[in-house]
Amino acid sequence: MSISKREAKRQLQQLIFDEERPREWVQDVWGMSPTLGETAARLLDAFEGAIEACSEEALVQLLQGLQGEADEME
User: Fold this and answer.
1) Where does the source fall among the domains of life (predicted)?
2) How far apart are CA 37 and CA 66, in angstroms?
3) CA–CA separation, 24 vs 68, rounded Å?
4) CB within 10 Å: which end of the chain, N or C, has fewer?
5) Residue 20: CB partners within 8 Å, gap ≥ 6?
6) Cα–Cα dist 66/59, whole Å
């Protein structure tokens, strides 16, 4: 599977956040619980940092592994 880092990020976001935009997800969580909202915001920051720090190859491998797990759960 040869995809760009940008495409891998998009697919990971879709896998994790479904159709919702990550920042909107954080706001939704924050609306339910400010404490959990802070955690959600830190999680999103960590996600974005990890995406930037990982190589394209590592992201593709991660994506393939997560998609395989998701397929197994269906």
Assistant:
1) Bacteria
2) 24
3) 27
4) C
5) 28
6) 10
Greater confidence (2 vs 21) lies with 21
Query: What DSSP string runs through 29-53?
Result: HHHH-HHHHHHHHHHHHHHHHHHHH
Q: Are 12 and 63 in contact (CB under 8 A)?
A: yes
Dihedral sign from CA coordinates of 15, 21, 23, 25: negative
Q: Which two three-digit tokens encode residue 18?
A: 């479904």
Counts for the chain of helices (H) and strands (E), in that order? 4, 0
8 A C-beta contact, residue 5 and residue 59? yes
What's the one-letter identity of residue 58?
A: A
CA distance 23 to 42: 11
